Structure of DUF2817 domain-containing protein:
Amino acid sequence: MIAAALSTALTTALAAPLLATPAHAASATDTPPRTGFEQTSGARWTTQPEEQEFLAAVDRASDRVSITRIGTTKQDRPLQLVRVGTRPTTRTVLLICSQHGDEPSGREACLSTVRDLAYTKDKRTKEFLKRTTVLVVPTANPDGRAADTRGNSDGIDINRDHLSLRTAEARAMAAVIRDRGPDVVYDLHEYGATPQYYDKDLFDLWPRNLNTDASVHEEAETLSRAYVRPAAQTAGYTTGTYGIWTDPVTGDPVKQVAGDGQERILRNMSGVKHSVGLLIESRVEPLTDGTVEPVNNRRRVNSQLSALKGLFSFAGERGGRVDAVTAAARAAGYRDTGPVYVGGADNDPAEPAEVIQDPPCGYRLTDAQYTDVRDELALHGVRVRHDGDGTLVPLRQSLRALVPLLLDEKAPYRLTNGEPDTDC
């Protein structure tokens, strides 16, 4: 069947050993470029100049690839968006790679994936790219990657800035999500293991924010449980739910250390903005004592690549369903009904004080308030209306739930205190 064949084709196209030269390379001029990581068999990570040379080579060689500069970091490094696809499509998958600069395996997996999709000659994979646009931010934190730090050059954790948008990096990503409307947002990270209780090769987690549309939430959990984890397990990697310690004997959860529902994390913001989101985390530490660094580095990257196969299979097999679900979620805000949650998560019911049960129809901003937050509202894609009384930010819009998270006094990460308006 078509879906099964597409899944098989994508697995074949992306399953070649990490360091192998693709079989279709016919001549020196047709030989795909290799990252610095690949050239050194995982002894070191790809440098920024190597990344730029690598991407330029892929761009020159493939008419499926285009590269856009979407921003500039404080240290003047480029923030780039790679588009892989042959024409406009109804479906878009966005990969955000290594928001934390000291978590490089996702970046390496993204770079080699761009190359493999650009050079593939597999018929079904090319058909897949006619229906699905793949967008990639190869290095979401170039300054942090250069310094091998979690935060950017100001020490800010970019993955805690997807609501306030104070960093150049988060602002660039917000503009991509606003302008490209990705149906799937896939966020690649790494984590530090805790022996026995928290030590899988790969963890993942879907949006837990309670403002995520129920059908979008369902698709995100399906992406995890039915596609990403099975693909990784087939490749020999262990998997689990990010942020949950489990008993090594019974497998029962014993402690939650991460994965809350607050909206400033990209995984949760993707759900608020009606994308099927998934966080993926590969284990940094070696699995056994005495493992040499290049071997461990290759495991980290290859585990990410195995999970990406599951993502592409999901996009191929369930693409029609995803298209319908994200479109319906984006339209639902115009009905302007239902509560908005300023706290809680899908595994942690909101307290009464964390629910705006009967939201106002909008929030009014003074001229000074609007001047202070207008750039962030625009980057998010929030619509506003100007009238004689100032600026009204209505809830009747696609990003309905985001408006109170930005402007209501109950919201813990709000930009400002807007004045609730019940007579819009």
